[in-house]
Amino acid sequence: MKKNKNFAGIFPYLVTPLDDKGHLKEDVLADLVDHLIGKGVHGLTPLGSTGEGPYLDWETKKRTVQVVVEAAAGRVPVIGGVNNMTTHGAVHEAAETEKLGVDGIRAVLPSYYSVDHDQIVTHFRSVARAVSCSVTLYTNPQFANWDFTVDTLRRIIEEPNVHYLKDASGNIGKLMSIVTVLGDRLKIFSATAFVPLFVFMMGGVGWMAGPACLIPEQSIALYEMARKKEWEEALEYQKKLWPLNVAFQRYSLAACVKAGLEMQGFSVGSPLAPQKQLSPEGRKDLHRILRNAGAI
Fold it and tell me: Which domains does the chain have, with CATH numbers?
């Protein structure tokens, strides 16, 4: 098994730059990786929700991870996303993603039909056993019809390489139960943009999110305040960043992040259809928010 590198800090959920035919814009992705590392991020996560992972074919996913790993060149850890509705497919993607040189994988189970807790446990155990690297579990009940319970997680973390949970439920009560029952055995990354500070207060180790693509320095500043337990200052700082979260709630996340990166000079293209592009009104709103946040 590969040594766990103790992931912590700000891990932007990278967008996947695509041209109008859906082909990967490799140079733009490499430039974005270099830019974010230069801003001081602690790691990178390709093929998440912001990266439209569930929408991409395997060859595009594979090349995306390759480009990120090559561009990062060992400067920060890379956690590759695994998004597949089938256990067979997820096991294949996990094993192949590890071969590309990632430091860990982040596994989510998109669902169409309902799955029960035993199926969830079997799926993630199978994925974890397919790799030797560190595994981050990901739950986002807004886009699936299931969520982890404390008991489900307790069973999954019997696999020794399952180290982290990225939680996008926004359910602070559930997270408190996880922290109380499972302790340091499962370290937590915040996902939802409106709770990172509260996750840090409960002992969370970092934040994996799309907003960090647009506001890496501001995201790092929030993390450092939390790390120093400067809670009052951190709360006031998160309030200043709140309008960006409001925009994400009002418009599509991938559309917002991609439009914002275009404003910052990265030609990342539009989200894949049938996802919406950001409207002219949305672009105006987002530009104002990023300008006020010092991101443009």
Answer: 9-228 (3.20.20.70)
